[in-house]
Amino acid sequence: MLRNDLAYIVTGAPGSGKTSIMNILSQKGLSFFDEPARAIISEQRNIDGQGIYDRDPYLFKELMLSRAIYQYLKAKEARTVYFFDRGIPDMLAYSQCFNLPSGAEQKAAEIYRYNPIVFFAPSWEAIFSNDEDRKLSFNQAQEFGDNLKQAYQKQGYNLIELPAVSPEDRTDFILEHIE
């Protein structure tokens, strides 16, 4: 097992404000990794690839898992605080969402351990929106968020729920909890 106490996950329901938090962390000079899903979707669409959730959900999940492991290892190598917009345990919820058998993501979640504190952005209908890549309903996003919460709890992480306040205040909330 590898453990990186300098690696903090911000996870939660789709459309719950995680990206806004990451942008503010970046403006403050802190290091972070974007959510693997968006990059994978963009790359796969550019090459007309099969690794997209609506073409081959299993391949999509495997590509995201590979990217998440790569990000984890790069952060561990850097030996500085890093924030992750989603982490390896998120892949367990993706497997459940797509009704896929979990295998590699379960083993990866056991091997690659982040800081035990995980910041969780719950579903928040007031800020939820769809875009070109996010096409699920608010209820589907909420259900995915519930599955995420269970996946992280089963892995032994301590979830701290982010309050329903501005992105700046949420970011300050996170920074107060890691200092």
Give the tags.
single chain; 179 residues; alpha/beta; Rossmann fold; two-stranded parallel sheet; 7 helices; 7 strands; 15% strand; globular
Query: What is the CATH superfamily classification?
Result: P-loop containing nucleotide triphosphate hydrolases
Query: Structural class of the secondary structure composition?
Result: alpha/beta
Annotation, overall tally of beta strands: 7
- Major sheet attributes: 5 strands, parallel
**If classified by CATH, what would the architecture be?**
3-Layer(aba) Sandwich
CATH topology: Rossmann fold
Percentage of residues in strands:
5-15%
Tally of individual helices: 7
Please report the distance between the alpha carbons of the first and last residues.
25 Å
Low-pLDDT runs: none
Question: Using only CA atoms, what is the Rg?
Answer: 15 Å
Global outline:
globular
Mean of residue pLDDT values: 92
Biggest sheet: strand arrangement? 3-4-2-6-7
Q: Write the H/E string, N to C.
A: EEHEHHEHHEEHEH
| CATH class term | Alpha Beta
List the domain count as a whole number: 1
